Amino acid sequence: MHTSTLIIVLLGLMSLAYYLGRKRSLNLVSGRVRDLHSLPSYYGLHTALWCGIPAILLLVVWISFEGSVVTSLVVDSLPQETQNLPPERLNLVLNDIRNLATGDIVSTTVDENMQQAADHYAGLQSISNMAMFVVALSLAIMAGYIAHRSISRQQRARNRVEKAVNFFLLSSSTLAIFTTIGIVLSVLFESIRFFQQIPVTDFIFGLEWSPQTAIRLDQVGSSGVFGAIPLFAGTFLITLIAMVVAVPIGLLSAIYMAEYAGRHFRSLAKPVLEVLAGIPTVVYGFFAALTVAPFFRDMGATLGLGVSSESALAAGVVMGIMIIPFVSSLSDDVINAVPQAMRDGSYGLGATRSETIRQVIVPAALPGIVGGVLLAVSRAIGETMIVVMAAGLSANLTANPLEAVTTVTVQIVTLLVGDQEFDSAKTLAAFALALVLFVITLALNMIALHIVRKYREQYE
Amino acid sequence: MNKQQQQQHERSMSRVEKGLARRYRQERNFKRLGLGAILMGLLFVSFLFISIFANGYTAFQQTFVKLDVFYDPEVIAPVGETDPDVLSAGHYGGLVKATMRELFPSVTNRRDKKKLYGLISTGAAFQIRERVMQDPSVIGQRESIWVPADDDVDMLIKGHIDLSLPESDRRIKDDQLSWIQGMQEDGRVEKRFNTTFFAAGDSREPELSGIKGAAVGSFFTLLICLAISFPVGVAAAVYLEEVAPKNRWTDLIEVNINNLAAVPSIVFGLLGLAVFINFFGLPRSVPLVGGLVLALMTLPTIIIASRVALKSVPPSIREAALGVGASPMQTITHHVLPLALPGMLTGTIIGMAQALGETAPLLMIGMVAFIVDIPGGAMDPSAVLPVQIYLWADSPERAFVERTSAAIMVLLVFLISMNLLAVWLRKKFERRW
Fold first, then answer.
1. Would you call B265 and A382 a contact, using CB atoms and an 8 Å cutoff?
2. Which pLDDT score, from 0 to 100, does residue A216 have?
């Protein structure tokens, strides 16, 4: 039987437990609710929680250990010479056994021993499955029964249920911390393994990036050089182009929306601009690769310039378009946060609107705008799909926006998509790059949030 | 006012007036600049949509060719045979070829024959097999059926192949062109609504590929994502806003959430790769892992939106509930949550729209595999819509360009309707206290 069936059965049992618990509490006081400590539904919930939670916890533990226990039992039953194989080979044999047991394609010829092992494996699997079913259900029924018996007039059912809910709330909110820890650990461990093979200084200051590592010693063209400067330079170049597009357009449209536009115009134009923010990045990538890059290339050809078809310019401009709504909505917030009194004061002195904007509002809102731009920069640095689809793969160290450059995120994707062994320097390099990316964006966010918060306090 | 003062006043007034024209000009220019920026933004939006639409609308039609197929008993099975095993083993590809030879008896050269067969999609043989399996009594009879044309023919009919190019640079050669013209004159070529696009999974042949597999994969992924991120997100927001004491620990949680909201999405993909796949040993390319990763990614969005919604519930509601004897938890579940729910739902829908369009983290957990089958559950390997778009965008065939754009149009329709739903929810349930 399947695990999902078990979960459905458990949910059914929990609702039954709720019903029974509620009924028993009512029976105890023969319907006079005011004699109970808590409302009858709390007694029901209390019973249901006791019925469900221990069984579900058991289920989680069981499923996470089932695989390794069954595998080690199967390994013990294998003939001695197979057990003595090196771990990788043993793994292959185990895979074959598993495939045989589930009826998939097996890579080697099936012999007596293997058939036996597969039967053994299938047998153990079904025993474990049955046992899990029986144990989980009996645990649920038992715990539910005990909770049901324990219902009394004085039982503090509401407090207990609330404690459980409180625990759930607390653990949900700590998930954010666990996610951060998970990111840091998973990226850090692999990076440390990478830096054991490649020195940190070579990685951070190296001028050449060519991650093809040799499988055989005599292989041609597999230098395995991991100098990340060209990647940083490419990322910086594309981000710069994006900012050159996004900051003026975003900022000016925010100013116009906040200071000049009439109500009708705003209610029409604002949602349309916000559509840009909701478009998936893969769409921008396709747009860049299919429309914008050929457009720049053809325009370059008519001007007599050699523009690469994967130029940094195309990727940067499209990324800038993507970021426009981000910049404009952040700037909109800070411009609206500037107190009206400052505007009125400026108008009272005879300044025109544009003078007020340029000499009063923008300087006052500047910290907030800078914070917003920093957030946009961190967004651009971490953006992946546009550059994967529209920027190049070869790591050129150049400042010419018409040439193809590559970025950190592009390299992470190319290094990790596809099948590789997990401990080669090539794969680990992706994690080192991700570590750099994470640290830089984190730093930018911290600074930006700090600036924005400080600015807000100023006017509150 | 004495004379000197008056003089001074006039002098400064004349200075102000002299500068006035310049200042008004500056004012107008500045206003135009702002308007120009907005128009530029609007221009980009319309340019993007027009470019996608112009490339994609043709994909909703597909060229079909009418073939007079003779269900040859010698090729398929004897008349009266109903055993599905025998029927499915018939050589249906040969049937299509024989029909084409019959149509153009003048083609005898081997190489020319191959070009001739290339006009019809390889899917035609499967279509004929389906037909025979459904109704074995057609064996031995002749019937006119419409089968999909090859993608190159499709492109030609839709006018995407430049006939002014020299023959060697074209996917469609001159003699193929004359055959197609011959068929067109017989009324054997027709464009029809492309049902395959909505009913099939991925395929190497553009005319047989569809988005259903990816759409179903996206559905399961979003389901997992929603099932995790909505309850956890709301619970976290309630804890931070209503229950938690203000101390270092909750400050830490808050800082964490704000930072997670700005972590690049690809980093979440690496987290999924390292934790869910390498550590917990979950399989690659499945919606379960995709949903988990996207849930972690959308959590900050949902938490932040939910906190704003909770904040907007006025304290008087809480005080009233507490005043009539509700416990703090009852206050939250009976009064605050129902009032904040529309705002939370709006945030969740926006988060889900984000998750639906997300590609990069899914590339990291192996959701880029080429998968033909339509997934049946959260543990079946599958693609999702944006990844399908990415894969098709990389394919060299011209016919995939229009299919990519069409898939983008479908994705955008989903996203825009989700966003409209969110706007509608906000409008309908927005309350001013």
1. yes
2. 56
